[in-house]
# Entry
Amino acid sequence: MSVQNFAMGNHEVDTRGLPYGIYDVDVEVIVNGRVVSKRTQRVN
# Structure
């Protein structure tokens, strides 16, 4: 499991620490301590 924080903008999630495979990742956008959007993305 991993938590990565980013400044505003477009970023790539670092998946090097995960074993090979396909994962569903929960992405939360938090602004001023409040969740403004949440979605699940599939990455491989």
Q: What stands out?
A: The mean pLDDT is 86. The chain is about 0% helix and 45% strand. Strands lie at 23-31, 34-43. Residues 1-44 form one domain.
